[in-house]
From TrEMBL:
Protein name: Penicillinase repressor
Protein source organism: Arenicella chitinivorans
Top-level taxonomic group: Bacteria
Family: Belongs to the BlaI transcriptional regulatory family.
Pfam families found in the cross-reference section: Penicillinase_R
GO MF terms held by the record: DNA binding
Length: 132
């Protein structure tokens, strides 16, 4: 997978990605403490999922003073754009991008990111199929 959204993360992987997009690099413990209320996972479940995400190239890993620190490698806008395109096509049966105006109340995207997402979806829609 490239960090440009070629792979669709699972819903639990998306929870971790959203946390790291918001909080940048964090240790496994910090990630676990943040997502445990939502997912109800044990620390070992968090560790296994984070390790799989590193293997899938969704997350990167650095060692900082002997502590493993993880960061999102999957870029936010391309990842979300791919998921939105898939949802619009697979679930809603729509051809073309879902209007970004439907996402203005998103707690995940800032106004600037909404504009970037809209441009990304428009460019992807106009690109040849091989380029998306």
């Amino acid at each position: 997978m490239s960090p440009n959204g070629d792979m669709k993360p699972s819903s639990t992987e998306l929870t971790i990605l959203k946390h790291l997009w918001r909080h940048k690099a964090q240790s496994l413990r910090e990630i676990h403490v943040a997502i445990e209320p939502e997912l109800g996972w044990t620390r070992s479940s968090t560790r296994k999922t984070v390790e799989r995400m590193v293997d899938k190239d969704l997350l990167g890993l650095r060692n900082v003073h002997g502590l493993n620190v993880y960061h999102a490698k999957a870029r936010k806008i391309p990842t979300l754009a791919g998921m939105i395109r898939d949802f619009a096509a697979d679930v809603l049966g729509l051809e073309g991008p879902l209007p970004v105006s439907n996402l203005v109340k998103s707690q995940v995207l800032s106004q600037e990111e909404l504009l970037e997402l809209e441009a990304y979806l428009e460019n992807a829609e106009n690109a040849p199929e091989d380029d998306v």
